[in-house]
Amino acid sequence: MTGRLHNTLAAERERLGWSQTRMAEAAGISRQSYAAIESGASVPSTEVALRLSLALGHPVSHLFHLPDRPAERRVAVWSGSDAPALGHRIRLTRVAGRWIAHPCAELHRPEASGDGVVERVNRGEVGVRLLPDRHPLASLAAVGCDPAFGMLVDGLRRDHGIEVSWSQRGSGAALATLARGEAHVAGVHLHDAESGTWNGPWVRRTVPFPCTRISFATWEQGLLVRPDARHRIGGIGDLGGGQLRLLNREQGSGSRALLDEELIAAGVETAQVEGYATAARGHLAVAAAVAAGAADAGVAIRAASVSYGLEFLPLRQEAYELVIPDHFLDLPAVQALLGLLGRPAVRAQVEALGGYDVAIMGRVAS
Questions:
Q1: How far apart, in whole angstroms, are the C-alpha atoms of residue 89 and residue 310?
Q2: Mean pLDDT, rounded, for 272-277
Q3: For residues 228, 219, 143 and 250, what is the CA-based torsion angle, rounded to 10 degrees?
Q4: What percent of the chain shows pLDDT beyond 90?
Q5: How confident is the model at residue 316 (pLDDT cuts 50, 70, 90)?
Q6: What distance in Å separates the CA atoms of residue 113 and residue 14, rounded to the nearest whole number?
Q7: pTM (2 decimals)?
Q8: How far apart are the C-alpha atoms of 258 and 200, rounded to whole Å?
Q9: Which is nearest to 136 in space by CA: 104, 92, 102, 98?
Q10: How far apart are the first and last CA of the chain?
Q11: Residue 339: Cβ-neighbour burial (10 angstroms; 0-12, 13-18, 19+)
Q12: CA angle, 349 as apex, 344 and 355 as ends, to 5°?
């Protein structure tokens, strides 16, 4: 860009799906005048810059900056599964007054643009150099493994201009992240064998402050199998012969816990299962690996099997819930999230993925 100011207008316009004409209308100028500002050939008046700031929901300093402005820096708490390293791309979110750094490698879309890179590591904290022309910083941090949550992420961005940092973590790790104060929302599906209930006992044991559980869906979880290997697998017990390769989920995930319960019920030792020690992050990762032939089977939700054209052997229905600390319930981003759960269109889109029952979506779980 060759003008006296750099700007993020093109990125903001692309994020919202707006045309240059619509941006010009928001600024109260002609499309030609707006195009000159976006290209850097013209400098906006104070009034035009303020109009754009109001329309896009970002301060003028985010939309326009001097080309020689030094890089901004932040100190953040590291919230990754692995130890931080110099050069890691991260997404930043403000959670309860602290900057939290979520590694891009663990995001639902790891190829997404990062907010910055790690340039210093010190005892659980990282020094972050912010990148130029980045997306707006996320105002909501969520952790969980449900692929359908991406619809809420897209809806919050489209309808409310709210950016979400969404990390793919199994249920146990998601609750631990919430307990450390590093996220606003955690998605979980954890069965408590002693009480026969879902999620509540785990939340009470793991999180040291009051939380509200919001029902998202009841889903089917089972064994995903490639069509050409279906004749070799009749159930969990067939995994113990050493002739089939399993792709497992990470420790602490609801899917791994289900597999363990089923193996015990079938009388199969984990040492007999080839691939038991493997660990994939997320249901779609399991389905993609099975579809590609990297494994013969894996445990995941029905929607993942539908997405990749796999056979599905159902094991049980589970309650997937969003856990939100009570002290975050009044945050505008959280209220917007809860509002989306009540929309019939959102429910219909989730149910269309296959294997989801959304009849109680958005209700407080008992």
A1: 33
A2: 94
A3: -40
A4: 73
A5: very high
A6: 14
A7: 0.79
A8: 17
A9: 92
A10: 55
A11: middle
A12: 110
Within 10 angstroms of residue 205's Cβ, the number of other Cβ atoms is 12
What is the rounded distance in angstroms from the CA atom of residue 89 to the CA atom of residue 103? 6
β-pairing, 185-188 vs 311-325, is antiparallel
Tokens found for residue 71: 């890089």
Cα–Cα distances in angstroms (integers) from residue 243 to residues 84, 235, 274, 294, 305, in the given order: 38, 14, 8, 14, 22
Backbone phi, psi, residue 130, to 5°: -70, 145
- Distance separating alpha carbons of residues 16 and 339, to the nearest angstrom: 20
Strand-pair category, 98-103 with 89-95: antiparallel
Tokens of 92: 């930043």
Residues of 97-124 as b/e, b for ≥16 C-beta within 10 angstroms?
A: eebbbbbbbbbbeeeeebbbbbeeeeee
Continuous H helices in the chain = 9-16, 20-27, 31-39, 46-56, 60-63, 149-160, 171-179, 200-206, 254-266, 283-292, 302-308, 332-341, 344-351
Q: Is the pLDDT of residue 2 over 60?
A: no
**φ, ψ for residue 178 (rounded to 5)?**
-65, -40
User: Collapsing DSSP states into helix, strand and coil, what is residue 115?
Assistant: coil
Average pLDDT over residues 114-120: 90
Q: What is the pLDDT of residues 14-70, one digit of tens each?
A: 778 899 999 999 999 999 999 999 888 899 999 999 999 888 877 787 788 777 667
Sequence-separated (6 or more) residues with CB below 8 Å from residue 139 = 93, 94, 162, 163, 164, 332, 333
CA atoms within 13 A on the CB side of 336: 19
Residue 1's pLDDT band (cuts 50, 70, 90): very low
In angstroms, the CA 115 to CA 102 distance is: 10
Per-residue pLDDT at 222: 95
Q: Is 160 exposed, middle or buried (0-12, 13-18, 19+ CB in 10 A)?
A: middle
Taking all residues of the chain, what is their mean pLDDT, rounded to a whole number? 91
